[in-house]
Design goal:
Length: 404
């Protein structure tokens, strides 16, 4: 059991008044809740936990204090019935965050946490999704108890009717709301019974999407294109090909490469998305491109590519991701221009290099080796990813039926 009682804290404010607090003790650990009332030390009865008659407002203050203590005990009992393990800190959180459990207040905390963790891509994607929920819910100033299954279904319909967006984009909006909901439940701010996601509730399921990739012939078009050596198109062509040659290396990892990652004909780096490390023998085609940049560089220990050199604080992950995101947009725009000039009628982006490797590898490489090359944490991710590109059996089955 926890112990809740009224105390007078011994630290005075500027006026020399002392704050009345609710003290919570559980497993010998204490937390204090300030309730906004200050009195002179001489007016406090420590034994009876009440304001003495020497204070002119003693009657009103004691009624208020009794009500706050009763509310606190009620909240504690409510929390104790929900969870097997209850700490002094969790009790305090439940008692003090009633004014902090609107969706808007928690969404701001969620975005602030993403920023502090350096997750610029998540931040920039989730912020407008949260803004759209604000628009739908009249400012987002609603409680989590009000975010019900019917409300979320209305939100889905609202997005569909007011914007030209895909089902996948709608699911991404729900994922953000689910993340913020999980945040308040983990913080003991909302009863888990109000969680609107899961079995027999709102299910998060991403619709299947067709992944675009280049053919062998289109890759050869890129490789053989006659481009000015110092042109921006040659640079983005080189970036795309390096990504492809290194099993679909993500652009965020490619731009972070340093010359120190290359040693004795091998590339060793840690993937930014999941912190998985690994080493690859540098293919001959990739080596030719890297040599081109090595001959141009003055700093043999710095970045292979210059995109991140102007970031003042390299340890500021948020700024680094922001710079990478902006660079990626510029690179993708140039790739689109290059695709048009080469007659490649597809939306050519850096990420398509990863899809292209997956498509061309098909069923030629064992799935365990592909998992290692992609650096997927789970082989199920590799199987799911690769299933987008392996169509041989379906093609043969269809062909066998139509041979008559």
């Amino acid at each position: 059991m926890a112990s809740l009682k009224l105390i007078l804290r011994k630290k005075a404010n500027k006026e020399g008044k002392f704050p009345i607090c609710i003290q919570i003790i559980k497993n010998r650990k204490a937390s204090l809740i300030h309730i906004g009332q200050y009195i002179d030390a001489i007016d406090w009865d420590e034994t009876k936990q009440k304001v003495k008659k020497t204070n002119s407002n003693h009657a009103e203050l004691n009624k208020y204090l009794l009500r706050k203590l009763t509310e606190a005990n009620g909240k504690y009992l409510e929390l104790a019935t929900e969870k097997e393990v209850v700490s002094a800190k969790s009790i305090k959180q439940r008692l003090t965050n009633n004014d902090n459990t609107t969706f808007k207040s928690q969404a701001e905390i969620y975005l602030d946490n993403l920023k502090k963790q350096g997750k610029y891509n998540r931040y920039s994607a989730d912020k407008p999704r949260i803004t759209r929920f604000y628009e739908f819910s009249k400012g987002g100033d609603i409680t989590f108890q009000e975010i019900t299954i019917p409300l979320l279904n209305k939100f889905k319909a609202y997005l569909k009717s007011t914007r030209q967006i895909t089902d996948r984009t709608i699911v991404n909006h729900l994922v953000v709301i689910r993340s913020i909901f999980s945040q308040v439940i983990l913080g003991n701010l909302v009863d888990p019974k109000y969680y609107p996601f899961g079995k027999d509730k709102i299910k998060i399921k991403f619709p299947d999407s067709q992944k675009v990739s280049l053919t062998i012939e289109e890759v050869k078009k890129l490789e053989n294109a006659k481009l000015s050596v110092e042109s921006s198109l040659n640079h983005v062509r080189n970036l795309w090909l390096l990504s492809f040659y290194f099993a679909g290396m993500r652009i965020s990892d490619l731009l972070r490469l340093k010359w120190s990652d290359i040693d004795n004909g091998r590339l060793t780096y840690t993937m930014g998305k999941n912190a998985k490390g690994g080493s690859l023998k540098i293919p001959e085609k990739a080596s030719i491109i890297l040599t081109f940049y090595m001959l141009k560089t003055k700093n043999k220990t710095g970045f292979v590519f210059s995109n991140l050199e102007n970031v003042r604080n390299q340890s500021d992950l948020f700024e680094v991701q922001k710079k990478i995101s902006n660079a990626t947009k510029t690179i993708d725009e140039a790739l689109q221009k290059l695709a048009f000039e080469l007659g490649i009628n597809k939306k050519l982006t850096m990420h398509i290099a990863r899809h292209t490797f997956g498509n061309l590898s098909g069923d030629k490489i064992p799935i365990q080796m592909l998992q290692k090359l992609y650096r997927h944490t789970s082989i199920l991710t590799t199987i799911g990813y690769q299933s987008n590109f392996i169509n041989k059996e379906a093609d043969e089955a269809l062909s066998s039926v139509l041979k008559y």
